[in-house]
Design a protein that fits this description.
Elements lengths: L2 H15 L7 H13 L13 H18 L3 H15 L10 H19 L4 H22 L2 E2 L5 E2 L8 H23 L3 H14 L10 H4 L1
Antiparallel strand pairs: 1-2
Length: 215
């Protein structure tokens, strides 16, 4: 089955499931899984989630089920469907758009690592996802990340919950990307990515001491 067919099928099934007024056990499980996957960025309350949040939750839940079944190509296609859906959805009340996007891109890149022995697709997903998330952070928070991964703004940068979430998610993408680079044999590149992640989120500084990064 082609990637486009998988995406259309996933979105079609999703539309049907959301027509019901009652919450199925699957929807409940999907929201719980997706909320946890967002790593503290979401403020969902079971039973009062927006339709957009539930749609993304169901797609992520389907994708992780496919990944657990080792159907990696199909899983990647569903994550791409989630990314495409986010581009058309209005912002959800439960989670900042940049955090939702980062979660989708991270899981896509991790899944792409399993699709073949070639890791170029995974690297491209990390690269594209990081660029995309930085664009959303700039749009939503009116800040940008400079070449040294310092947060910049035209006005004094005021720390906020959303900015902390943005820092953590961007740092998470960079660390995961760096670990991929160690698999590709580019340890120096991994060290640079880990160092940049540590600038954004000091809790990531420990990664610099990991043997897989240091060599």
């Amino acid at each position: 089955m082609g990637r486009r067919c998988v995406v259309l099928c996933a979105l079609g099934c999703l539309h049907f499931s959301l027509q019901r007024s009652w919450v199925s056990p699957r929807e409940h499980a999907a929201v719980g899984y997706y909320t946890a996957a967002l790593r503290g960025a979401a403020t969902a309350v079971h039973g009062s989630e927006s339709s957009g949040f539930k749609r993304l939750a169901l797609l992520h839940y389907e994708a992780v089920e496919l990944r657990r079944a080792r159907k990696f190509a199909e899983s990647s296609a569903v994550y791409r469907a989630a990314i495409a859906l986010q581009e058309t959805l209005p912002p959800t009340k439960e989670v900042p758009t940049f955090a939702a996007a980062a979660c989708s891109w991270l899981n896509l890149a991790l899944t792409e690592q399993k699709t073949s022995t070639c890791l170029d697709a995974a690297r491209s997903a990390f690269q594209e996802g990081t660029r995309y998330v930085q664009g959303l952070i700039h749009k939503e928070l009116d800040v940008w990340i400079d070449g040294h991964h310092q947060v910049r703004s035209r006005a004094p940068v005021l720390e906020s919950h959303n900015l902390r979430v943005a820092r953590r998610w961007l740092a998470t993408l960079l660390v995961a990307w760096g670990l991929l680079e160690t698999k590709r044999g580019f340890r120096a590149r991994a060290q640079v990515l880990a160092a940049r992640a540590a600038v954004l989120d000091e809790s990531k500084a420990k990664v610099l001491g990991w043997k897989v990064v240091q060599g």
